[in-house]
Amino acid sequence: MINDQSAGIERLLEIMRRLRDPDTGCPWDIEQDFDSIAPYTIEEAYEVADAIQRQDWPELEGELGDLLLQTVYHTAMGEEAGHFSFQSVVQNISDKMVARHPHVFGDESRNKSAEQQTADWEAIKAQERAGKAQKGALDGVAIGLPALLRAYKLQKRAARVGFDWPETTQVLDKIKEEAAELVEAQNELTPDEIEEEFGDLMFVMANLGRHLSLDPEAALRRANAKFTKRFEGVEAKLAERGKTAAESDLAEMDALWDAVKEEERAQT
Fold it and tell me: Where is the NTP pyrophosphohydrolase MazG-like domain (predicted)?
């Protein structure tokens, strides 16, 4: 099966079993556990998102395979420990999708607005959390999420039970307040306290994104991509002058940055 390219998912599962075989497998793969593989899982998920953002479909195909391998890896370790198997994971998510879509797989009407669909989805998820003895509004928001994304999800959960500013202007006022406290903290507080104030500001910024119906994680990824493109433009212009960024200074690079921005505007 290892060399049978038509064997599909069963081939991949067998490859993982062989890699993890304690007698004949790969030493590195044998040593891994859930904790050591988890960072790779997160990284692969972000590489999938990156390929989508760049609309690089051949790259996306490869990245989706890498992400699938992470699921296979975790389920192989789960099966070895007697926790679960690949098939039980597949059954679990299949059952969940059927249960969460009664308007498709059940007898409920499909004639609902997007808002009603979302409300129904959240109601079903709330029932699932209750079945898991998750009583608090914030229960189930994964601790291992990227901090900015977790902040967004925590605030979204809190808003469902009414703990939220009703107006966006109140969020903006809070940002001004937190920013002022951070400025004051530079000279008056310890490094740990400064970090706390900075975290407060970041937390409120995530809330502003939610109030504007924006995903702060996606917005920051977009800003990162824009910065990368513009700085590479600066480096290209420096190269035309026979220089590197390290051989330049802030004034020159800032002027070139403005030139790159002007060229972007001219192209739109």
Answer: 32-105
Kindly state the average pLDDT of the residues 27-39.
Answer: 96
| 74 found inside a domain | yes
* 180 and 226 inside one domain: no
**Does residue 123 sit within a domain?**
no
Say which residue the tokens 């304690």 belong to.
22
Other C-beta atoms lying within 10 Å of the C-beta of residue 75: 20
In this structure, is residue 4 part of a structural domain? no
Stretch 101-130: mean pLDDT: 81
Query: At residue 131, what is the residue type?
Result: G
* CA-wise closest residue to 184 among 196, 176, 194: 194
Whether residues 223 and 190 share a domain: the answer is no
CA atoms within 13 A on the CB side of 147: 7
Residue 8 banded pLDDT, cuts 50, 70, 90? very high
Q: What's the helix, strand, coil split of the chain in %, to 5?
A: 75, 0, 25
User: Using CB atoms within 10 A of its CB, is residue 41 exposed (0-12), middle (13-18) or buried (19+)?
Assistant: middle
Domain end, chosen from 100, 119, 147, is at 100
Q: What is the mean pLDDT of residues 239-243?
A: 96
The pLDDT > 70 percentage for the chain reads 98
- Total domain count, the chain: 3
Contact (Cβ atoms closer than 8 angstroms) between residue 249 and residue 234: no
